[in-house]
């Protein structure tokens, strides 16, 4: 789906990454992890074409959905109107077709916001707004999703619900997450961004090793492999 070879990324004339080689595989969930300030968001923006890069970056998709960390929401707009905007962006039209309305209601149900479609966005909680953005991703028709901290401002239950939804889509997805235990449960492949522009790309089995996590985060980790899940603990 994405193949990077000798990828170099500059931001404000400062070279953050150079000589990166890695793949993002189709149909899998790739999770980017690392400390704050290491360039995770910059890397994601380069992968989806939001910022310029040097080197080879092959993208095998025509439509993507990018969800940034911070979004400015319009005033006096209902949830339904917010979601309907995706169809007006696709085609110039005056009104929605009945099938498009059905798609919106289905997406609202998928993210468990049924009954709130007529609420103004300013009446929704931060977690509900993030669910609305996930619904927007469902409606976008994108072949790949780029979601920068999609579970921010949510309690644990809603974090799990959103990640369950994303996993069930079976779409190629690239996520930035901070919770390593949640990441280990939902990711297939991982890109660990360490300081100094170093990255480590591995599948879950190889990434969740004590020495790899220590290398990415500079902390002393303990990794416990359960029957189904992997648990990570930090030791000071």
List the helices and strands and how they pair.
Blueprint: E1 2-11, E2 14-24, E3 29-34, H1 40-47, E4 54-59, E5 64-67, H2 79-90, H3 98-110, H4 126-139, E6 144-148, H5 156-168, E7 172-176, H6 180-186, E8 189-193, E9 199-203, H7 204-207, H8 210-217, E10 220-225, E11 230-235
Parallel strand pairs: 3-7, 3-8, 5-6, 6-7
Antiparallel strand pairs: 1-2, 1-4, 8-9, 10-11
Helix pairs in contact: 2-3, 2-4, 3-4
What is the structure about, briefly put?
The protein is an alpha/beta fold and 236 residues long. The chain contains eight helices and eleven strands. It has two domains: 2-62 and 143-235, Rossmann fold, CATH 3.40.50; 76-142, no CATH class.
Structure description:
- The protein is an alpha/beta fold and 236 residues long.
- The relative contact order is 0.17.
- The chain has helices at residues 40-47, 79-90, 98-110, 126-139, 156-168, 180-186, 204-207, 210-217; strands at 2-11, 14-24, 29-34, 54-59, 64-67, 144-148, 172-176, 189-193, 199-203, 220-225, 230-235.
- The strands form three sheets. Strands 5-6-7-3-8-9 form a six-stranded mixed beta sheet, sandwiched between helices.
- It has two domains: 2-62 and 143-235, Rossmann fold (3-Layer(aba) Sandwich); 76-142, no CATH class.
- It has eight helices and eleven strands.
């Amino acid at each position: 789906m994405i193949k990077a070879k000798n990828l170099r990324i500059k931001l404000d004339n400062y070279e953050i990454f150079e000589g990166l080689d890695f793949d993002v595989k189709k149909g899998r969930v790739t999770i980017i992890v690392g400390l704050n300030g290491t360039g995770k968001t910059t890397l994601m923006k380069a992968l989806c074409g939001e910022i310029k890069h040097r080197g080879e970056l092959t993208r095998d998709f025509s439509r993507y959905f990018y969800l940034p960390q911070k979004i400015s929401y319009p005033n006096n707009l209902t949830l339904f109107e917010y979601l309907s905007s995706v169809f007006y962006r696709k085609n110039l039209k005056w009104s929605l077709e009945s099938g498009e309305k059905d798609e919106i209601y289905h997406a609202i149900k998928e993210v468990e916001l049924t009954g709130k479609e007529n609420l103004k966005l300013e009446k929704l909680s931060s977690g509900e707004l993030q669910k609305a953005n996930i619904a927007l991703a469902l409606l976008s028709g994108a072949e790949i999703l780029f979601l920068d901290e999609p579970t921010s401002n949510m309690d644990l239950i809603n974090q799990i619900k959103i990640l369950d939804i994303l996993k069930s889509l079976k779409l190629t997805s690239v996520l930035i997450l901070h919770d390593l235990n949640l990441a280990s449960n939902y990711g297939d492949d991982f890109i660990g961004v360490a300081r100094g522009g170093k990255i480590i790309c591995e599948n879950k089995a190889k990434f969740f090793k004590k020495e790899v996590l220590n290398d990415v985060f500079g902390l002393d980790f303990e990794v416990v492999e359960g029957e189904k899940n992997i648990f990570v603990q930090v030791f000071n």
